[in-house]
Backbone:
């Protein structure tokens, strides 16, 4: 089973995404990979990688045979393509739907089936959420390997989220953060509502005074 760092996941995810969504720009240059890694949309978390950092990551992935330099490309700038899946160079083969799910999980972290259906719309077609769940079930046992895992459902949530297992994932830290966050948000909301009620009460008091003056 492949073991990738979070930054390597981002690069592989970018290569899978751009191969499908912008095939005219694939294989990709180092500059293109860096820009795509640092996108502020469709990325969680947002990263700010320097081109030198991305070069190191790309070199690591070339060494591990996950990426390859396109020697057929013309020009001075090196272009890269992935060997991660669905290529003649490896045994890892996904369906279009499975590939789309893996891509989004690499780029955006844990997702619910509903989120995956929406966020894979440029990569694959799913008729409904049940098709997403079916593909996720297949990825939990595919040729003897487990590529995704269903996380424990968070309090107040209707759907469980799924995470890819191509990199280490600290479920304990994630669960703790997820469980404490709603409490903090609730406290903030209650504080904000209390402030608004106080302000409204003050405005009503002033209006009452003005009405009293006008009616005397």
Residues:
């Amino acid at each position: 089973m492949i073991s990738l760092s979070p930054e390597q996941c981002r690069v592989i995810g970018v290569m899978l995404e751009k191969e499908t969504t912008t095939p005219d720009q694939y294989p990709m240059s180092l500059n293109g990979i860096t820009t795509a890694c640092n996108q502020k949309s469709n990325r969680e978390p947002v990263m700010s990688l320097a081109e030198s950092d991305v070069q190191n990551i790309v070199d690591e992935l070339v060494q591990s045979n996950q990426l390859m330099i396109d020697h057929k490309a013309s020009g001075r700038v090196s272009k890269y393509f992935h060997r991660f899946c669905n290529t003649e160079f490896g045994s890892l083969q996904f369906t279009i739907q499975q590939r789309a799910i893996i891509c989004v999980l690499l780029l955006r972290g844990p997702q619910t089936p509903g989120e995956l259906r929406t966020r894979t719309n440029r990569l694959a077609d799913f008729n409904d959420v049940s098709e997403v769940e079916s593909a996720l079930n297949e990825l939990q046992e595919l040729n003897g390997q487990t590529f995704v895992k269903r996380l424990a459902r968070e309090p107040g949530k209707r759907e469980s989220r799924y995470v890819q297992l191509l990199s280490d994932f600290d479920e304990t830290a994630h669960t703790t953060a997820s469980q404490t966050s709603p409490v903090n948000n609730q406290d903030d909301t209650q504080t904000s509502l209390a402030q608004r009620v106080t302000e409204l009460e003050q405005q009503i008091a002033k209006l009452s005074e003005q009405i009293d003056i006008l009616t005397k």
Remarks:
- Residues 170-216 form one domain.
- The longest strand covers residues 79-82.
- Confidence is low (pLDDT under 50) at residues 173-183.
